[in-house]
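Notebook entry, structure prediction.
Reason for the run: the old model in the group folder had no record of what sequence produced it. Starting over properly, with the input documented here first.
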Amino acid sequence: MAFRITFLQKLLSYLVPVTVLKTQSTFNSSLEVAVESGTLVLNAAHSNYSYGSLFKVFKKAFNVFEIDVLKPRTVIMLGMGAGSVVKYIAQKNPSAAIDAVEIDENVIAIAEQVFEIGMFSSIHIIHSDAQVFLNDCDKKYELILIDLFIDNAVPLFCNDENFAIQLKKITAKGGIVLFNASMSIPTETNYPYQYIKKHFKNTSIKVIQGNLVLFASD
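New structure, fully documented this time:
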């Protein structure tokens, strides 16, 4: 049964966020489904996970880097969250085969039970640590999306050169990588951009709504 919000909850949400579900997990001390301005979102303790500001960062990044989501036949998202970005691509590009990797089983449950990610047969959810998945992956993807925050921090392995090497390994010829890399604004000589530049021919870096977003392609 689909998750429903009441008229009163929706109305109040234009004044203040209305929490409708609160839980936690091994990876997140707080996971909160809330109604904000009439829309269901998933928030962690200090950041939005899905359907709020995070979703807006990726939508704007597609425009800023001129990424046509109608083109890729194979897509992967490392760090699915509750699925706002992969649902957007599935709606725009129904023929794309989409793999979505998520480490937190409680987040996956919320994606399925609240945000109905299962209604899209083109989305294949993989419950895994992204680092382990990359080490074992032998597929190549035309579009690679990365949003690996645990709350408001990026895992340390993303700052290692091996992460860039693994991304290169799974990137198809002509493929694109889009990496939401930080909520701070370091210079382009900082991690992990220096490694992305080393292993990809075309790279760019932009600050989008306060987030550092990296683009790479071959």
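Summary: The radius of gyration is 17 Å.
The old model has been moved to the deprecated folder.
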